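Hypothesis: this fold can be encoded by more than one sequence.
Test: take the structure tokens below, design a sequence, compare later.
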């Protein structure tokens, strides 16, 4: 066998010249690129090591291209090298081939095809951050924290985020089989989900107890702030005097939309969020401005482990500036900035370039936003009743396993119309319609203990404020600051 290997080696020496030439050219490109940053590189130290490693890379490139058991295109090898390079960084840095880059641009526009889930990588496992309400994945029963272990029978163990997204998208109306593992279950679950157009309805609005407005923001896409303005105007017409802003299971989205949403609730010249990175141009500050109508209702912001990125920016700003009380469970902790850099061939690099900080200087990355009032969401059975095991006191280990995953768990994370007539029938129909709507709202509160707590808190707000004012008149110094309740 040794003699045979020697013969193959001699044959390889005669055939490698073309591959070596290509690899050397590739190496020269890398070296020229590295020289651009020569000021930051010690040529006798780190720089010399970099050049040596690039030389090894070119050798491996030549060997694979000339001697691998099957022919491999140089494009495939180069793309594989790029993917491996970005995989050595944090989970949110990724290479986007041309098609994936175009898909991403469609996604942030608020309308795209797929299943409707936000995913990430946790300890090398594809994990659901949050299903988007009303989408095929949400309706099928996919939950935040589910680990996707197979897509169409193929293991996701070494699958990148980009590949996973690409595999789950397809023709509208076609089905896809995914296998998930969920904490607390003895065996994986198989789901067959039919792909559909994912047109995100950014805003959902309701009114509770006649004067408490409720707005749920599902994601931060291009139309979010405009949709928020319409929802606020509609609620104002109904006479609301308090507001619940729900960003639970909101995986985030566009930074400018997080800033715009925060701006609706803050006074002028307030810092909303700032970023810090390695280079000076990554250090930015985002503040409120003097355009748009602002609202000043007493506010509660609902958050949970599925609240990430842009959601955390909004919650953190309103909390820091004493504008709202944050209620719910600790957020995901995804506070890093990804810059999308288009490349010459139509592909792009999603590169982590900075960290987000709240107005008071708290880092969001890994830490997340801790609510002023902690209220864990209770699980319910199919009839809406709380499960016995959730009522009983559980061990700390079980509680930990039931909570949502956080950024810190990720591998390599950065530290009625009236009727025509006498009006009687119309009044009856209107009354029935209101009763039906009231029943639906009561069912919402019965199923959602976090929302129920927020509504209850705001329902007693006027009483608390009146009591504190009375104490002040009697010589006391009591005061109530929104967003600083603990």
């Amino acid at each position: 066998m040794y003699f045979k290997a020697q013969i193959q080696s001699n044959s390889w020496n005669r055939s490698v010249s073309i591959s070596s030439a290509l690899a050397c050219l590739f190496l020269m490109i890398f070296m020229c690129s590295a020289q651009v940053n020569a000021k930051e590189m010690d040529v006798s130290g780190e720089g010399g090591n970099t050049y040596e490693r690039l030389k090894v890379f070119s050798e491996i490139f030549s060997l694979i291209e000339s001697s691998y058991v099957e022919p491999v295109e140089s494009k495939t090898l180069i793309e594989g090298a790029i993917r491996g390079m970005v995989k050595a960084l944090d989970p949110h840095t990724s290479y986007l081939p041309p098609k994936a880059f175009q898909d991403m641009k469609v996604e942030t526009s608020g309308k795209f095809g797929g299943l409707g889930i936000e995913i990430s990588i946790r300890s090398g496992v594809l994990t659901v951050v949050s299903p988007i309400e009303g989408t095929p994945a949400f309706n099928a029963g996919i939950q935040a924290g589910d680990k996707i272990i197979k897509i169409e029978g193929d293991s996701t163990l070494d699958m990148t985020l980009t590949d996973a997204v690409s595999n789950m998208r397809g023709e509208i109306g076609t089905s896809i089989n995914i296998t998930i593992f969920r904490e607390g279950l003895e065996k994986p679950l198989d789901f067959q989900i039919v792909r559909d157009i994912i047109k995100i309805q950014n805003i959902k609005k309701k009114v509770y107890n006649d004067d408490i407005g409720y707005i749920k923001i599902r994601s931060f896409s291009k139309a979010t702030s405009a949709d928020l303005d319409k929802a606020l105007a509609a609620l104002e017409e109904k006479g609301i005097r308090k507001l619940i802003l729900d960003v639970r299971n909101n995986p985030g989205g566009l930074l400018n939309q997080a800033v715009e949403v925060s701006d609706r609730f803050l006074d002028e010249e307030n810092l909303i969020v700032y970023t810090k990175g390695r280079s000076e141009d990554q250090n930015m500050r985002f503040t409120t401005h003097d355009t748009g109508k602002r609202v000043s209702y007493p506010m509660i912001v609902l958050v949970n482990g599925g609240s990430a990125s842009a959601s955390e920016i909004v919650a953190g700003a309103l909390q820091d500036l004493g504008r709202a009380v944050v209620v719910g469970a600790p957020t995901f902790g995804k506070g890093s900035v990804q810059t999308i850099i288009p490349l010459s061939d139509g592909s792009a690099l999603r590169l982590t370039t900075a960290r987000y900080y709240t107005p008071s200087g708290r880092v969001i990355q890994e830490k997340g936003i801790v609510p002023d009032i902690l209220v864990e969401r209770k699980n319910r059975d199919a009839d809406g009743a709380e499960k016995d095991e959730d009522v009983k006191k559980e061990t700390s280990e079980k509680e930990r396993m039931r909570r949502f995953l956080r950024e810190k768990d990720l591998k390599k994370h950065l530290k009625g119309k009236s009727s025509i007539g006498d009006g009687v029938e119309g009044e009856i129909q209107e009354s029935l319609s209101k009763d039906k709507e009231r029943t639906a709202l009561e069912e919402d509160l019965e199923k959602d203990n976090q929302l129920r707590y927020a509504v209850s808190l705001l329902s007693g707000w006027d009483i608390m404020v009146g009591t504190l004012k009375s104490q002040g008149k009697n010589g006391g110094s009591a005061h109530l600051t929104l967003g600083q309740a603990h």
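The chain has three domains: 2-72, 111-199, 203-409. The radius of gyration is 27 Å.
Hypothesis status: open.
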